Amino acid sequence: MENRFWRIERRPEGTDFDEALALVSAPLPDLAQGEIRIRNAMLSMDAGTRLWLTSREDGYQPPLPVGAPMTGLVLGEVIESRAEGFAAGDLVRAFGVWGEVSQVDAAMAGAVKLDPSVEDRRAWFGPLGMNGWTALWGIERTGAAKSGERVLVSAAAGATGILAVQIAKLLGCEAWGIAGGAEKCRFLTDELGIAGAVDYKAGDLGAQLDAAGGFDVYFDNVGGAVLDTVLTRMNHYGRIAVCGLLADYNSGERTAPREFDQVLMRRLRVEGFFSPDFMHEGEALTARLREWTETGELVMPYDVTRGLDNTLAAYRKLFTGGNIGKVIVELEP
Ligand SMILES: NC(=O)c1ccc[n+]([C@@H]2O[C@H](COP(=O)([O-])OP(=O)(O)OC[C@H]3O[C@@H](n4cnc5c(N)ncnc54)[C@H](OP(=O)(O)O)[C@@H]3O)[C@@H](O)[C@H]2O)c1
């Protein structure tokens, strides 16, 4: 059986993904014990995977080798199984291959069977998946946000941020977002009804945040200059939940915050968190998130691109700000 998939040809510079990845075709090996073959119906585009494309050895997981297939979360039907607990016809989500088919060791790929009764399968990549878990964990556990507190989220119109602001609001907090552009800010305030949104691309972010007032919790998706600006707007004893440092992913730079002394001056707690650490709690987190999605209190807009050939254009949106909500590539007709 032939498989078309995206292979890493070299490490990308910035967003030159077209030069760095190539769509190739190769026969699939025989299925080994413990493996499943998934016909991918959807690919999840996640900004964090940009780190796996670098040569950094000090990340939370080793980089993907040049010559390897590009990896990410996939959703689809099992077409063949030699893994216990999985059978042909099961709907699954796993870390698979950006291709037509993912052939993976079910345990190593974190494959999970999904409830096929969920009407909108895209939700398994959004509120009911890693973005949902990350947003809930970061706001509630790492950020320890309490009802009545003021919570600020960066990249607030992206997949993770859009859930984080809504969850903060659901927990009784006053939720604010930082996003690039008037359309995104309007979406956050008018469609989601959060307390306020600040456009970091329109004028002085510091002045806009000063007008908004101090924050108790900052859920940071971007790091860089935005983090520096927020550090001097945190309330005393505030918490900064470091979810991602997107601003550095493409540049390959590591921007240390110049205002780090505010951690001391304002007695802040700064803590990073990574979803692999709480995957074992995934089911319980999903159950809570599902209640909110079923009541319509937690929503996700989807930015859907059709066709494997168009994957890189979809991926690029994460780094150029082209998306509102979750970016997905749909492979099925
Ligand atoms: N810790 C974890 O376990 C975990 C899990 C999932 C995701 N994450 C992190 O969450 C963050 C968001 O990832 P995602 O997959 O949900 O992507 P996303 O938010 O859907 O898309 C990324 C958004 O980030 C903004 N952005 C891009 N470059 C930026 C820059 N230089 N400065 C400021 N904003 C920038 C853009 O929106 P604007 O138009 O607003 O600029 C873009 O739309 C990433 O840092 C990722 O690593 C962490």
Structure description:
This protein is an alpha/beta fold. It has helices at residues 17-20, 49-52, 130-142, 159-170, 182-191, 205-212, 224-231, 246-249, 262-265, 282-294, 311-320; strands at residues 2-8, 21-27, 35-44, 71-81, 91-97, 101-105, 112-113, 150-153, 174-179, 196-199, 215-220, 234-242, 269-272, 302-306, 326-330. It folds into 2 domains: 2-125 and 301-330, Quinone Oxidoreductase, Chain A, domain 1, CATH 3.90.180.10; 130-276, NAD(P)-binding Rossmann-like Domain (Rossmann fold), CATH 3.40.50. It has 11 helices and 15 strands. The strands form 3 sheets. Strands 3, 4, 5, 6, 7, 14 and 15 form a 7-stranded mixed beta sheet that branches. A 6-stranded parallel beta sheet has the order 10-9-8-11-12-13, sandwiched between helices. A two-stranded antiparallel ribbon has the order 1-2. Strand 8 (150-153), helix 4 and strand 9 (174-179) form a beta-alpha-beta unit. Helix 3 crosses helix 4 (159-170). It starts with a strand and ends with a strand. The mean pLDDT is 96. The structure holds NADP nicotinamide-adenine-dinucleotide phosphate.
